[in-house]
Automatic annotation (TrEMBL):
Protein source organism: Galbibacter orientalis DSM 19592
A matching Pfam family: DAHP_synth_1
Pathway: Carbohydrate biosynthesis; 3-deoxy-D-manno-octulosonate biosynthesis; 3-deoxy-D-manno-octulosonate from D-ribulose 5-phosphate: step 2/3; Bacterial outer membrane biogenesis; lipopolysaccharide biosynthesis
The protein, known as: 3-deoxy-8-phosphooctulonate synthase
Membership in a protein family: Belongs to the KdsA family.
UniProt EC number: 2.5.1.55
Record's keyword annotation contains Protease: no
Subcellular localization, as worded in the UniProt entry: Cytoplasm
Protein origin, superkingdom: Bacteria
The keyword ATP-binding is annotated on this UniProt entry: no
Length: 272
């Protein structure tokens, strides 16, 4: 995957990590624009290549009454407006074969969720759009097994594949990050570390996923030190009242300080 092949991506010569960040789900236009405006201002200031993230729908929910979205087309149009307003690329996840072509009309990067990354037809449908494909490593998969997911994209004639590690199941209700997997997966494609989902505590008896957001800085710093190409994190100005995954999101007010720390670590690593 080459960053320069992602439309509207900026700061690719800064030698910084790249960042995929935004809310878990598109809850409405005002919230998406508010988060994007601040994230774009920060990443422009720090010269970080940036892709705005937002799910146009959420399909993998524990409970039937969980928030799943505001309507597919409505959310996708908001993602397009973010891109056009702030001149940045956007990424969203897809869950069904029919989602691939639809979402590709609005966004620049298609993301395959971790639970679905072994679904060949879905991966192929996404790859055939010609978009950059972000393959999330299944919580149940080894780093070595991700080479096959990448190969599916390559076999479709699409060289724009990236792998995102979002943690590995540790018992029933916790996740861990095995940093040994980062150099392994970098043999197959650039690697992103999903900092916030790696701190989820799934399968709670309430049916609402928990998390440990106080550890976001620790995991992000370790990821940069381990040599990841990029970071993924979900952020919101009011995580406590976010309609999806609020328990493990980074408060938007904390984003700039964390990124400054991460840039300092990256610069140190680059000097060796």
């Amino acid at each position: 995957m080459k960053l320069e092949n992602i439309p509207q991506i900026k700061h690719i010569n800064s030698n910084n990590f790249f960042l995929l960040a935004g809310p878990c789900a598109i809850e409405g236009e005002e919230m998406a624009m508010r988060i994007a405006e601040k994230a774009v201002a920060i990443t422009d200031k720090l010269q970080i290549p940036y892709v705005f993230k937002g799910s146009f729908k959420k399909a993998n929910r524990s409970r039937i009454d969980s928030f799943t979205g505001i309507g597919d087309e409505k959310a996708l149009k908001i993602l397009r407006k973010v891109s056009e307003t702030f001149n940045v690329p956007t990424v969203t996840d897809i869950h069904e074969i029919s989602d691939a072509e639809m979402a590709a009309e609005y966004v620049d990067v298609l993301q395959i969720p971790a639970f679905l990354v072994r679904q060949t037809d879905l991966v192929v449908a996404a790859a055939n759009t010609g978009k950059t494909i972000n393959l999330k490593k299944g919580q149940f998969m080894s780093p070595e097994s991700m080479q096959h997911a990448v190969q599916k994209v390559l076999d479709c004639g699409n060289e724009q594949a990236v792998i995102t590690d979002r943690g590995t199941m540790f018992g029933y209700q916790d996740m861990i990050v095995d940093f040994r997997g980062i150099p392994t997966m970098k043999q197959y494609a650039p690697v992103v570390l999903d900092v916030t989902h790696s701190l989820q505590q799934p399968n709670q008896s309430s049916g609402v996923t928990g998390g440990r957001p106080e550890m976001i800085g620790t995991i992000a710093k370790a990821g940069i030190a381990a040599g990841v190409n990029g970071l993924f994190m979900e952020t919101h100005f009011d995580p406590a009242n976010a309609k999806s995954d609020g328990a493990n999101m980074l408060h938007l007010d904390l984003l700039e300080n964390l990124l400054n720390q991460l840039i300092a670590i990256r610069q140190t690593i680059n000097n060796f």
